[in-house]
Design goal:
Shape: globular
Radius of gyration: 29 Å
Number of domains: 1
Structural class: alpha+beta
């Protein structure tokens, strides 16, 4: 009987001294737990990379959306209102009934996995700028690229105006009721149907945007 050990490199088992089989692995077949560990590590590194890129993009957009002076913001806000009224006359009707108007003429949204949106704007009363605010939101989930938009919030009640003035930042969706106006809502709005605390219009150069949400956006007072 041949008792020499099996030296075949492709052998799947060999014998222990007590005769029990011992599993062995060929070089091309690493242990399953090692494959799993390497796969998990690669996924973690990929996610960390995507998070880092998203954070850099989000940090960069703050600089791009920043208006250097109050005069810049005032000019851009007036232009944003004129564009909105040109596309949607209903907005101008609402403006005449509003107690105050918040105008964010340029908000930039960007990200990869982690992203966000940032812009600065003006609070106007009786068509005059009175205070300045920023608009900040964050998001999580796969997203690529950047886009810019404007939005205007018409404050219809004293409740909305006071809440903005006294809160440590207004998170849209909390506090006064804000109705986001799309094309369908705009057709049914008139001075007799304005019952909510605030109405928001989200726009670009082509008109109202349906693809952007401002829910969860935080609006805070800034100095200019």
């Amino acid at each position: 009987m041949n008792t020499r050990p099996n030296t075949d490199a492709s052998a799947r088992v060999r014998m222990r001294t007590d005769g029990a089989p011992v599993p062995v692995f060929r070089d091309k077949d690493p242990p399953h737990h090692l494959e799993s560990f390497m796969s998990t590590s690669n996924r973690r590194l990929t996610w960390l990379f995507l998070l880092a890129v998203g954070a850099v993009m989000f940090g960069g957009l703050v600089g791009r959306a920043f208006a250097a002076t109050a005069e810049d913001l005032n000019k851009d806000a007036n232009q944003a209102l004129a564009t909105l009224y040109g596309h949607n006359p209903t907005a101008e009707v609402i403006a005449k009934k509003a107690k105050a108007v918040l105008v964010f003429p340029k908000v930039i949204k960007a990200g990869l996995v982690f992203g966000g949106a940032y812009g600065e704007g003006v609070l106007m009363k009786a068509d005059k700028p009175t205070e300045y605010y920023n608009s900040v939101s964050a998001s999580w989930g796969f997203q690529a690229g950047a886009e810019s938009y404007a939005y205007v919030v018409f404050l219809m009640s004293d409740k909305a105006v006071n809440y903005l003035a006294t809160s440590q930042g207004w998170e849209l969706g909390v506090g006064p009721t804000v109705v986001v106006v799309n094309e369908g809502v705009a057709k049914n709005l008139s001075t007799s149907t304005l019952k909510d605390d605030a109405y928001a219009f989200i726009t670009d150069q082509q008109g109202l945007m349906a693809s952007v949400s401002i829910e969860g956006t935080k609006i805070s007072r800034i100095k200019r």
